[in-house]
Amino acid sequence: MQRVVIVTGANSGIGLALCERLLTEDSQLRLCLACRNVQRAEAARSALLTSHTNAHVDLLHLDVGSVQSVFTAAQEVKARYSRIDFLYLNAGIMPNPQVDVKAFFKGLFSRNVVNMFATAEGLLTQQDRLNSDGLQEVFATNLFGHFLLIRELEPLLCQAGHTSRIVWTSSSNARRSAFSIEDMQHRNGTEPYSSSKYASDTLSLALNRHKNNQGLFSSVICPGLVMTNLTYGILPSFFWTLIMPIMWLIRIFTNTFTLTPYNGAEALHWLFLQKSESLDPRAKYHSLTSGLGTNYTQPRKMDIDDEMSEVLYSKLLDLERVVRGEASEGNAANKLINST
C-alpha cells in the first residue's frame, strides 16, 4: 500500500534532506511538501523529481504561523488523501536572533564549547512579536500551528486498524528553564525558540497518552548542530567563515556536530524505519555523526513530566476553542492577546 507522508518546512535544509532520503528509501510513497513559500516549494519539488523521476511529490501551501492557513491547508489535505502515515512537523522559525559576542568568543576557546554550540545557553536570545492572529509568532509557528494541524487531521491520523506517526523536529536548545506553563507563549521572556521546542517535547508526551489507543504515535528528534538557513541567520556570514574550520575540528571529538542537513535528518529517517510500538515516548531521538563521518541515531531521556504535559495539552485545547470561535467572528487578535 502506498504510504502518505507530509513534511512541513520541506523546501530547504533538514526538511528537504529528509524528503530526499525518504524517496531513496521508498520510491513508491506519496510525498507532500507543505511549505509557506510556494516558489521555493516548487523548486524543491523539481530538484527531488530530477533525482527521483518516477516519484509522486505533491505541494501544499501551508503557513503554520497562520491559523487560517492551517485550516485551509487541512481541508485540502482531507480532500486529497484518505489517510496519513507520517506527519513530519519540521517547520520552525528563530526570528531576530541576538548573540552575546563576548560570551561566544569566551566559550569558543573553553571546555564548554560543545555545550555552548549545542544549547546556546547564556548565548542566544530572540526578539519575538505578535502575529496577525494575536499570538506570539514563534509559539504560533513552532508549536500551536502544528498542534492545530494535528487536530484538524485527526480523521486521517486516527483510523481504526491503522497506525500513523507524528515526528517533531526539536532541538538541543529545548530547555526546561526557558519554558513556563504560566506563560506558554513566552511573552515575558527572551528565549521563545527554546521555549517552543521544549513545549513540543512536552506536548509529544501528552499526545501519546491521549492518542496511542487510536493508533497515533508521536516522537521527537534532535538534528544536532546543523548548518541551515536558520543557523546561518544567527551570526554574520564572516563569523561563520572564521569559525567553520574550528567546528569541523571539534566534530572529530563530539558526535552532536552533524553539520549537514543530510546528517541532521538521520533520526527523522531512522524513525521512518521503526515500528511505533518499539519507541519510547519519553525519549528524544538524536541524529549523531561520529568523527569518522558515520551517522546513527541514539535515544536520550527528555526532562519532562506527566503533570506539565497534561496542563499544556489542556491549555492548547482551550486556546484552540478560542481560535475556532474567534476565527469565525473575524476578530481573533484582541481576545487572543488577553486569553492566554
UniProtKB/TrEMBL annotation:
Lineage, broadest ranks: Eukaryota, Metazoa, Chordata, Craniata, Vertebrata
Subunit comment: Binds to the short form of prolactin receptor.
EC number from the UniProt entry: 1.1.1.210, 1.1.1.270, 1.1.1.62
GO biological process: cholesterol biosynthetic process; estrogen biosynthetic process
Keywords: Endoplasmic reticulum, Glycoprotein, Lipid biosynthesis, Lipid metabolism, Membrane, NAD, NADP, Oxidoreductase, Steroid biosynthesis, Transmembrane, Transmembrane helix
Naturally occurring in which organism (per UniProt): Seriola lalandi dorsalis
Homology family: Belongs to the short-chain dehydrogenases/reductases (SDR) family. ERG27 subfamily.
GO cellular component terms, semicolon-separated: endoplasmic reticulum membrane
Superkingdom of the source species: Eukaryota
Protein name: 3-keto-steroid reductase/17-beta-hydroxysteroid dehydrogenase 7
Primary localization class, coarse: endoplasmic reticulum
EC category name: oxidoreductase
Matches recorded under Pfam families: adh_short
Reactions it catalyzes: 4alpha-methyl-5alpha-cholest-8-en-3-one + NADPH + H(+) = 4alpha-methyl-5alpha-cholest-8-en-3beta-ol + NADP(+); zymosterone + NADPH + H(+) = zymosterol + NADP(+); 4alpha-methyl-5alpha-cholest-7-en-3beta-ol + NADP(+) = 4alpha-methyl-5alpha-cholest-7-en-3-one + NADPH + H(+); 3-dehydro-4alpha-methylzymosterol + NADPH + H(+) = 4alpha-methylzymosterol + NADP(+)
Pathway the protein acts in: Steroid biosynthesis; estrogen biosynthesis; Steroid biosynthesis; zymosterol biosynthesis; zymosterol from lanosterol: step 5/6
GO MF terms, alphabetically ordered: 3-beta-hydroxysteroid 3-dehydrogenase (NADP+) activity; 5-alpha-androstane-3-beta,17-beta-diol dehydrogenase (NADP+) activity; estradiol 17-beta-dehydrogenase [NAD(P)+] activity
Residues spanning the membrane: 230-250
Keyword NADP: yes
Membrane topology: Single-pass membrane protein
